[in-house]
Amino acid sequence: MYYGEIKDCDIANGEGVRVTLFVSGCTNHCPHCFQPQTWDFTYGQPFTKETEDQLLNMLAPDYIQGLTLLGGEPFEPENQRVLVPFLHRVRETLPQKNIWSFTGFTYEDLLTDGSHPRCEVTDEMLSMLDVLVDGRFVEELKNLSLRFRGSSNQRLIDLKKTRETGIVTLLPEKNRHKI
Question: What's the pLDDT tens digit per position in 51-66?
């Protein structure tokens, strides 16, 4: 897996101050994507053990609330296979941090056998996430007033509550505007 960028003090891609990893590779190719260069699976730099160590060090300070995965597309199968062992390291080393992921796929796509993003590690990856921002960016539904997303079809899914209830549960409105 390759990555295009790491941000160590991001407040735009999840609640609180976050470390953000922009992975490379995406087959969605959404029109008007804000980072089309990340569609290329070899864009940027290789994701290595040193990259993982760097991210864990960036995540360690108390003021960092968590990790956000963006892209490209974290849920491309080849990216999931690399991210899952790393997410295990994050959970084991820093269990107090939360993990968000953005995806152009829907949550339902990720659960559907035979769909492009679903692979042998999808359920494991989802089990380590706290919030999933799902759905492709759709220019016709663009809304600049939305927090943490670009178009109104995208959802902020509280995966902890979704796992507890078995029903897709969105983050409460009060949390959507909190930084």
Answer: 999 999 999 999 999 9
Closest CA to 7 of 60, 70, 49: 70
Contact 15, 60 (CB under 8 A): no
Type of residue found at 145: S
- Give the tens place of pLDDT for each residue, 120-146: 999 999 999 999 999 999 999 999 889
Q: Which DSSP string do the residues of 117-171 spell out, in sequence order? A: T--TTHHHHHHT-SEEEES---GGGB-TTSSS-SBTT-EEEEHHHHHHHSS--BP
Contact at 8 Å (CB) between 136 and 153? yes
The helix or strand, by DSSP H or E, that contains position 9, with its residue range, turns out to be strand 2-10
Cα dist. 168→116, 121, 146, 147 in Å? Answer: 21, 20, 19, 19
**Coil vs helix vs strand at 96:** coil
Report which of 106, 116, 98 is spatially closest to residue 157, judged by C-alpha positions: 106
